[in-house]
Write a structure and sequence with these properties.
By secondary structure, this protein is of the alpha/beta class. It folds into two domains: about 200 residues, NAD(P)-binding Rossmann-like Domain (Rossmann fold); about 35 residues, no CATH class. Helix content is about 55%, strand content about 10%. The protein is built from eight helices and five strands. The chain has a five-stranded parallel beta sheet, sandwiched between helices. Helix 1 crosses helix 6 and helix 4 packs parallel to helix 5. It is globular and about 55 Å long. The N and C termini lie far apart (about 70 Å).
């Protein structure tokens, strides 16, 4: 009996691996079919993750509205998507919208332009961001305001313009791309910011996860290496220990800067 169990173990593992592979492939195909004909708006589509999201959703048959603050880069992304489109699959020509979320005075008007592209929005992916690194006293209030405009007030303004359309149609999803550092009080990150890449995760993998999140309607997804995940666990359940370690790191860095 023992010998049979040993011989059966590799077959069992192989069978489980095969089932997992089939499940992943079915989930991937299902997630893409879930966005077929959906109107998907992606902010900062010219960033690394923005481009990958555009590629994934375009391949899935979504009607894309690509937003960015550089028209030449938007056109370059447009050409890239059109050039790799599979003629055997139904895809739609992306629409381009020039949008700078840090310019609050123009966001409402541009948001209406976004809505006019197809008359509705099914999925809004808030991916735009501005990042800054430095001690609190070295960052000007003007820069703080610009960061808050781009990372908070801009996306909020855009969302509020598009939200009534979703409510009236009783359908719609809003995806917020954030960074795990937003869950920490880390030093030299005094102004809250987003980064478009999950730690140790390729933009393509992150884009596929965004697609699965939309399809499964998940509330929150965390993509990170074990160390950031462990740090989040410690921050949640052992905050005093976490901040003591962070404080030690800050002291060492300040000592090095002082010596320099």
């Amino acid at each position: 009996m023992g010998i049979m169990a040993v011989l059966m173990l590799p077959l069992l593992l192989l069978g489980i691996s095969g089932l997992l592979f089939i499940y992943q492939e079915v989930s991937r195909l299902w997630s893409k079919s879930a966005v077929q004909n959906k109107v998907v708006v992606i902010t900062d589509a010219i960033s690394g993750l923005g481009k990958e999201c555009a590629r994934v959703f375009h391949t899935g048959g979504a009607r894309l509205v690509l937003c960015g603050k550089n028209w030449e880069k938007l056109e370059s992304l447009y050409d890239a998507l059109i050039s790799v489109a599979d003629p055997s699959k139904q895809t739609f020509t992306p629409k381009l919208v020039l949008l700078d979320l840090s310019d609050i005075s123009c966001v409402q008007d541009v948001a209406k332009e976004v809505l006019d592209c197809y008359g509705c929005v099914d999925i809004l992916i808030n991916n735009s961001s501005v990042k800054v690194k430095g001690p609190a006293h070295a960052i000007s209030l003007e820069l703080d305001k610009k960061i808050m405009d781009a990372n908070y007030f801009g996306p909020i303004t855009l969302t509020k313009v598009l939200l009534p359309n979703m409510i009236s149609r009783r359908t719609g999803q809003i995806v917020l791309v954030n960074n795990i550092q937003g869950k920490f009080g880390l030093p030299f990150r005094t102004a809250f910011f987003f980064r478009k890449l999950a730690y140790g995760v390729h933009p393509g993998e992150a884009a596929e996860e965004v697609m699965r999140t939309v399809q499964r309607k998940k509330q929150e997804v965390l993509m990170a290496n074990p160390i950031p995940k462990a740090a989040l666990f410690i921050r949640t359940f052992f905050p005093e220990f976490f901040f003591a370690v962070v404080a030690c790191g800050v002291k060492e860095k300040l000592d090095v800067l002082g010596e320099g």
